[in-house]
Amino acid sequence: MDKDEAKRLLAKELKGWRRRTYADLVSLVDGEAATGELLGEDGVYYQFEIQVFWDDKPAEDIQVFGAIDDGGIRAFFPLTDGFIMAPDGSFVDEDPV
Question: Which pLDDT does position 30 carry in this prediction?
Fold first, then answer.
């Protein structure tokens, strides 16, 4: 698996999730994981999974967690990334952009 390609694809997928509102993400907490496949520039299909859950306590920060792999041995050790959103829509522990 090309780790740089997998990281790029996961970052691109998470970028769309970062555009969602806090209320939208709340509606997805503890629901089914979003899954899909992305075709990398390297011609490899990568599988991703996105999960949304409370970071600590209900009605507070929400954590969005993503994982990606190429279906090979990395499926047991996928690359991961994510973010935490506060109720006011800001991102926790990130510098403002």
Answer: 85
Residues of the chain with pLDDT under 70: 95-97
pLDDT digit string, tens, across residues 4-19: 999 999 999 999 999 9
* Inside any domain, residue 49: yes
Instruction: Return the bridge partners of 91, or none.
Output: 85
Domain-embedded: residue 37:
yes
Q: For residue 22, what are the domain limits?
A: 3-85
On whether residue 90 sits in a domain, the answer given is no
Tell me how many domains the chain contains: 1
